[in-house]
Protein 1
Amino acid sequence: MPISVFLLDDHEIVRRGIAQLLESEEDIQVIGEAGTAAQALARVPALRPDVAILDVRLPDGEGVSVCRDIRAALDPPPACLMLTSYSDDEALFGAIMAGAAGYLLKQVGGGDLVGAVRTVAAGGSLLDPKATAVVLERLRKGDEPEDPRYASLSPQERRILGLVADGLTNRQIGAELFLAEKTVKNYVSSLLHKLGFSRRTEAAVYAAERRRSGSAG
């Protein structure tokens, strides 16, 4: 039986390129794709792929959250390969915590991506042992209870909170994270709601206090 793969990326040309690359291999079959987190969450349970290749940054959410949700919903769960354009420690931490089997930059060569699909489909892991060790160390140091408000934030919301604390406007944050200004505004509204604040300045002060106290994130 060929390895069945599902693709999640908000750029159609990227999905087409990956699909063409994988379909050229006799032992790999692309059985579905999506451009948003919502589409993926609706389609993956019905398709039950062996491997899910998930973009980390999506217009309506986080690939890490999709990884966690589909792994929790399916038995056996698919092996999830996180694919991103940027090296990001927080996203890597989130991917490991969500149970991802691998974390690759989009600059990866075609042959390496094919090999990665085969590796995780066979039960292997492509996570750097050093990165995994850092995550485990962070967990060991987490003796103090995490602020449940902060814990409720997605990795993207945490990134945006940090940039709010740095004094960036929504437009500047959008330029930094390659997001539309309206999307940033929605993220800010969401994180303010989760933190229980009504004003942006309150969130900035909160984030600055976390930094001073040395809290993770």
Protein 2
Amino acid sequence: MSKPSWQNKHIVVAGLGSSGVSMLRFFQSQECTVQGYDAKLSAERRAEIAAQCPDIELVDGSLAQVLQDADILAVSPGFPSRQPEVQAFAARGGKVVGDVEIFAQLVAQTDAKVLAITGSNGKTTVTSLTGFLCEQSGLKTVVAGNIGLPVLDAWMQNQGQADVWVLELSSFQLDTTSSLQASAATVLNISEDHLDRYDDLLDYAHSKTHIFTGSGVQVLNADDALCLAMARPNREVKWFSLQKPSDYWVDVQDATLPLKAGEDMLLKAQDLALTGLHNAANALVALALCEAIGLPRAGLLPLLTQFKGLPHRVETIGFYQDVQFIDDSKGTNVGATCAALQGLQQPIVLIAGGLGKGQDFSPLQDALLHKARAVMLIGRDAAHIEAALQLDVPVVRCESLEAATQQGFALAQAGDAVLLSPACASMDMFRDYAHRSEVFIEAFKELSQA
């Protein structure tokens, strides 16, 4: 067994959020020298980390100075890896890695399977569903990564033992990953997101392709031009589509919306507990990933109908006067909101807005055309969204989410849906997307109990 690349090295872990601290915890048990770095480390946070990692020095101030004697810089996903100090460190021979790269070196020493999932939208649903299918099929399954459990915490908690690791990976994690060899991996889609961290959409898309290192099966979206370009020569590729016959596809010409594999009928969309066409695609991707590691289809199809989905992803929270209220607070970019709109069949009152992260909001125009009853806008970038829309329905600026919920219901008709799918981050008005969801649910309860 080869010696790990970090053994006997001086390592600086930069960015001390959950992933950064998981790296500190991991490295303190290894044969190396470790420091934790964060530019702005509060006394409270310093004390919390010191309690978990008592033998590790925590530093702040100039990153360039901290890196002078370092061999490896281990960056957390939230730490911008393209800043000049990091580039200079790499240029003089320093190695820049993330927690997923460290995990990749560990898992390569085992016989475990790895299923890796990324994309602008849907990755949390696909990761959770894939993990559910693997676990219910009898495999020792660990789900980790961007979904909430840092990969190194998952590794340590399970002592490196699993039949299959199901990983949700963000572009930030993939930026610093070079040797992950997944048994099967997918890029679900590419839409504008995180353009404050990338040069352009192609730059962002390229970061996603790091998930395809190695020789595993590629599962790719036949309806997405950027995903079409990711198919690699001499690799097994499985295509999924909502538009045309493919390896895995939904026949949208049939009113029952059958899910198919080639010519084989699998299920009808109505058989799934998940709502919306985009979730039918998510189910097909999970099926493709599981079949790629040898799980039999006959056992997987009944399991697909049992998975009920995730909180805050196109989740029905209730009905009032025959109007459906749907929580998609986790729809934090334009692509996610477009997918939610396209997946629902009834007229919609959309509640959107928040921190736009430099996105182009114009795709919302086509997604809302002939489907929107009204659009209620909240948050810092409400004006930018309004400027992108030319609709023959009311577009209303609201002071709060509570007001948007009340005014949206007033404009809805029986059979409509009031959909919270903000296309934006939440931190201008809320702690996070879950808090935004809580406020929406409370607003619905007040409305329906009045």
Protein 3
Amino acid sequence: MSEEVILEAVRTPYGKRNGALRETRPDALLAFVLNGLVERAGFDPAQVEDVITGAVTQAGEQGANIGRLAVLMAGWPVQVPGVSLNRMCGSGQQAVHFAAQGVAAGDIRYAVGCGVESMTRVQMFSDIGGGFERLNPELLGKVDLIHQGESAERIADHWKLSREELDAFAAESHRRAAQSQGKHTELLPISGLDADGNVITLAADEGVRGNIDPAKMATLKTPFRATGVVTAGNASQISDGAAAVLVGNREIALADGLRPRARFRARVVVGSDPTLQLTGVIPATQKALEKAGLSISDIDWFEINEAFASVAVSWMHELNVEPRKLNPWGGAIAHGHPLGASGAGLMAKMLAGLEATGGTLGLQTMCIGHGMATATIIERL
């Protein structure tokens, strides 16, 4: 088998809902990041043999195979194909997995795994025309599919997580994200609009708050339960953004004058309880470590998608992970979670973080709706 390596990984700064990227179509976002990727790598896009794109809500401006449309918008040769997939919040990470697997199998020399989501312009669940009530009644009779917010509340119940602990974790996410600004070599500054409609350059994640008032955070409502612990303050932000990872055959890349930055040690996906639905990150982490022949203590950087603070905190407690290693540059509570883009974006952020800190091994995992999780272990080269 061919050895598959990461050659480049980039993302846009994430815009807030109705924020700086509100007027940027998602296909344009993805085209921008694709061109930024190959420009950074000094790479001819004609050599890309597939562009695999994660997008969750594939409707409207994100429909009609946005991966292929973005390739054409980017002005890449028409011979470069593109495909779109939906593994919900793990879509961007799964796209990177599929790209790497194609290279490992020897079917592809170079591929791009990427993702995009404009949650401002394409509303969640618009692909099914509403909420879970639009799903097949037979399915709903077999599986108790509930809002992820209620799942996050049940996770907090199970691990006995208090509102104070979750709010403190959220505030720390913002603190770390603010402190890391200026270190994010994976970012591609992009044009956007300020509140008055003036053109600006968005060079950092828009949702990060440098100062969090704990007293104000404590007043936020708990929308899923009258006396719950999950709030907008300790959950991920609704965001717009795109990200892309260039994967190639190591031997061919070296011959072409490219520098491999990381290799894959493990790639896994698991199913989990579809009602609790967000706890798959625990078995996914365990399976990835087993596949790589590693232990928790071997990992230098853990990138866990902060869909809800209760997911990340329960994962940390269950696996006995040092808090300093978990999302060292903050997470989705601070920088946002553009659904289809997050998997590739966290990969780009983790690689940049490993390089900045001299770390070697990074593990990324993401909880996924309906009970799944993806996990990847990379080794910096």
